[in-house]
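Record Lipoprotein, 133 aa.
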Amino acid sequence: MQIIKFIPLSLCALLFTVGCSSVDNNDVPAVTADSNIEISLSPEQQKAVDNSIDFIESSEFDSKDRIDTNIVTIQNADERTWENVWSMVAQVDKHAVDATDWIITIGDRSGHDFARIVCDSDTYEVIGYIPIE
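=>
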C-alpha cells in the first residue's frame, strides 16, 4: 500500500519540478547574429566601410538615422552584382563592378534599418548601393 502512495507522489514531484523549471537561453544552441561576431577588417576594408558610412550619412535613405553602423558584414561581389547596383541617380554601368569588389552590409538586416553598399576593392570608394526590396 505504501508503494502505491509513493508512485503518485513521486510523479507529482517530478512533474512539478520539470514544469516549474526555467530555460536558460545559454543552454539552447542558437545562430550567432552579425552583431555578436567580432571580425577583424583589413585597413583597406576599414577604409571602404568608413566610405560606406559617409555615403549613408550623406544619402537620402529614409532609415539612415536608424542604421547601426557597428553591425557590418562584407562579401565579394559576383559577375552579376552590377545589375542591382545604383548610384544616387541611375543604375551603374556593367563594367563598374567586378568580382573583386565588396558588398558591404551595414546595419541590422532583420528589418529595413540597413544599407548594402558596393565598394571598389582597389580604390575603396563607393560605387553605389543595392536597393532594399
